[in-house]
C-alpha cells in the first residue's frame, strides 16, 4: 500500500530590517513651538550678542525666562538707532537688564527724548551722557526727571541767582539720579541761605558729613574775603 506524505509549506519568517546607518538617519529639527529651543536661543543672544552673564541677568530679571526673543532685541535696537554702538548697548543692558523686558517706548525712548529735548543735550553728546549715568534710562520722566529739571529752573539753579547754566547739567547728567526731596532740595536751600555756590558734582556727590564740612569752609572763605 502506497504511503502519502503531506508536505506543508515552511512557515514564512520575515527578516528583521537592517539597522539604519547613522548617516542615513534624518535630522530631527526642533519644533518652532519647542520652549526649550527658544530658551536656548535667548541664552545665546544674551551671552553671544550682548556679552552678558546670562545667570546674573536671569537672576536680576526673572521675566527674561518667558519674554519672547524679539522683545529682548527691541531694547538693543532702540539704543543702536540713537547712535550707540553694540558694545555700548551691551554695557547699558548689563547694568539694567530690566530694559530687556520693558516696553522700549517707556522709559528708555522717553528718557532719550527728554535728554535731547528739555535738557537740550546735543545728539553728539547723548551717548556720553547716558554712559556716564545709564540709570537715566530706567528713571521715570514724569515722576523724577521732569520734576528735577523744573526745580533747577524754578529756583534759579540753571540760570539766574546762582549763575548756573545748562552746560553744567550736561556735564553732570547724574544729577537726575539723585533724590529731589532727599538731597537736591535740602542742599540747594542751605547754599541759598548762605549765599554760596558749589558745583553740582560737589553739592550732590559729597556725603552728608563732607558736604557740611565743605559748607563751613566756604563760609569761612567768604568771611575772609569780606575782611
From TrEMBL:
<dbReference type="GO" id="GO:0006353">
    <property type="term" value="P:DNA-templated transcription termination"/>
</dbReference>
<keyword id="KW-0805">Transcription regulation</keyword>
<dbReference type="Pfam" id="PF02536">
    <property type="entry name" value="mTERF"/>
</dbReference>
<comment type="similarity">
    <text>Belongs to the mTERF family.</text>
</comment>
<dbReference type="InterPro" id="IPR003690">
    <property type="entry name" value="MTERF"/>
</dbReference>
<keyword id="KW-0809">Transit peptide</keyword>
<keyword id="KW-0806">Transcription termination</keyword>
<keyword id="KW-0804">Transcription</keyword>
<feature type="compositionally biased region" description="Pro residues">
    <location>
        <begin position="11"/>
        <end position="23"/>
    </location>
</feature>
<dbReference type="InterPro" id="IPR038538">
    <property type="entry name" value="MTERF_sf"/>
</dbReference>
<dbReference type="GO" id="GO:0003676">
    <property type="term" value="F:nucleic acid binding"/>
</dbReference>
<protein>
    <submittedName>
        <fullName>Uncharacterized protein</fullName>
    </submittedName>
</protein>
<feature type="region of interest" description="Disordered">
    <location>
        <begin position="1"/>
        <end position="31"/>
    </location>
</feature>
Amino acid at each position: 500500500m502506497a504511503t502519502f506524505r503531506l508536505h506543508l509549506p515552511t512557515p514564512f519568517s520575515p527578516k528583521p530590517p537592517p539597522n539604519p546607518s547613522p548617516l542615513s538617519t534624518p535630522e530631527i529639527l526642533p519644533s518652532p513651538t519647542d520652549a526649550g529651543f527658544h530658551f536656548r536661543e535667548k541664552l545665546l543672544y544674551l551671552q553671544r550678542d550682548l556679552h552678558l552673564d546670562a545667570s546674573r541677568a536671569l537672576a536680576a530679571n526673572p521675566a527674561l525666562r518667558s519674554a519672547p526673543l524679539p522683545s529682548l532685541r527691541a531694547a538693543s535696537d532702540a539704543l543702536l538707532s540713537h547712535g550707540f554702538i553694540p558694545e555700548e548697548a551691551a554695557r547699558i543692558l548689563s547694568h539694567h537688564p530690566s530694559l530687556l523686558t520693558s516696553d522700549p517706548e517707556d522709559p528708555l525712548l522717553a528718557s532719550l527724548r527728554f535728554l535731547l529735548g528739555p535738557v537740550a543735550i546735543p545728539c553728539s553728546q547723548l551717548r556720553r551722557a547716558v554712559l556716564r549715568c545709564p540709570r537715566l534710562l530706567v528713571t521715570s520722566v514724569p515722576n523724577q526727571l521732569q520734576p528735577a529739571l523744573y526745580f533747577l529752573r524754578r529756583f534759579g539753579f540753571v540760570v539766574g541767582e546762582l549763575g548756573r547754566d545748562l552746560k553744567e547739567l550736561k556735564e553732570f547728567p547724574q544729577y537726575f539720579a539723585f533724590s529731589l526731596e532727599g538731597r537736591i532740595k535740602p542742599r540747594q536751600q542751605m547754599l541759598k541761605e548762605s549765599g554760596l555756590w558749589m558745583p553740582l558734582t560737589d553739592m550732590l556727590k559729597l556725603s552728608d558729613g563732607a558736604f557740611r564740612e565743605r559748607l563751613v569752609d566756604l563760609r569761612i572763605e567768604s568771611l575772609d574775603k569780606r575782611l
